[in-house]
Amino acid sequence: MELRLLRYFLAVAREENITRAAESLHITQPSLSKQLMELEQELGKQLFIRGKRKITLTEEGVLLRKRADEILMLCEKTQREIAQDSDLIGGVISIGGAQSPVVAQATSLIADRYLGVKFQFFNGDAETLMERLDHGTLDFGILIEPVDLVKYEHLPLNETDEWGLLMQKDCSLASKKVIRPEDIQGVPLILPQRIGLQRELSTWAGISTEQLNTIATFDILFNNPSLLIKNGLGYAFALRTLVDTSESPTLCFRPLEPAIKIQYGLAWKRYPIFSKAAEKFIEQLRELVE
What we know:
This protein is of the alpha/beta class and 290 residues long. The chain folds into three domains: 3-71, Arc Repressor Mutant, subunit A, CATH 1.10.10.10; 74-158 and 264-289, D-Maltodextrin-Binding Protein, domain 2 (3-Layer(aba) Sandwich), CATH 3.40.190.10; 160-263, Periplasmic binding protein-like II (D-Maltodextrin-Binding Protein, domain 2), CATH 3.40.190.10. Helix content is 39%, strand content 24%. It contains nine helices and eleven strands. The protein has helices spanning 3-15, 18-25, 29-43, 59-83, 101-113, 126-135, 195-205, 226-230, 276-289; strands at residues 48-50, 55-57, 90-97, 116-122, 140-144, 152-168, 189-192, 214-218, 235-239, 251-255, 261-269. Strands 3, 4, 5, 6, 7, 8, 9, 10 and 11 form a nine-stranded mixed sheet that branches. A two-stranded antiparallel sheet has the order 1-2. Strand 3 (90-97), helix 5 (101-113) and strand 4 form a beta-alpha-beta unit. Helix 1 (3-15) packs across helix 2 (18-25), helix 1 (3-15) packs across helix 4 and helix 5 packs across helix 9. It is globular. Belongs to the LysR transcriptional regulatory family. This is LysR family transcriptional regulator. InterPro entries: HTH-type_LysR_regulators, LysR_HTH_N, LysR_subst-bd, WH-like_DNA-bd_sf, WH_DNA-bd_sf. Residues 1-58 form the HTH lysR-type domain.
């Protein structure tokens, strides 16, 4: 499968129209249509549903779009690294996950010291971050511990957070200073999407995840449940630093009792082939946290 065909495929997926895609690629429409048909024949799967007004992706097409993005990103990343002058510290360092003050400090120090170094930040849930780490399209991921030490190297960031309940200020639980397990019995809850975190919270509550009155889930590193709470959907288990309510006239945060503390860590693929810039970043981060 040629990289050129993947670029053609992504153009059509983006434009949802053969004519517009052909124009963006500066090739003729018949030529583009022919090559897409050849791609489908090569894979033995239909990738597009060709409608009168627009083109949509089949299930196999959606998968190919995801993989094509990763393949092209990795190719471009490799080309940049190889083309980089071996005597210079430069290139792009990609970091995904939650915001971290110490990581932000390290990136600022590296950017000031090495003008050729650029940073690319990526948001996504833990599963997506780990998948990108595995494929090499992401250099580092900021994850909630515990981190899978079989697959990843790991540097604790010494930054802690705590679980609590996000709610409307005029609700009955808002009068409490802390939230205890008995307080959430029967309460409509919005839980983090990650199964491991759901189990940790259900253990705190003393009941199974199935017994919790869960009405929605969300990715704590990517989505803020505040809008859902404001519209009366329920109560959200959230991390204090990710849902700042200090300036909100309608929302408040109450910590759990007994408290559940978490810590963030920086993870990267085991046995990596790092660029010099990535090596300098790790060295700088270690100086700040160790």
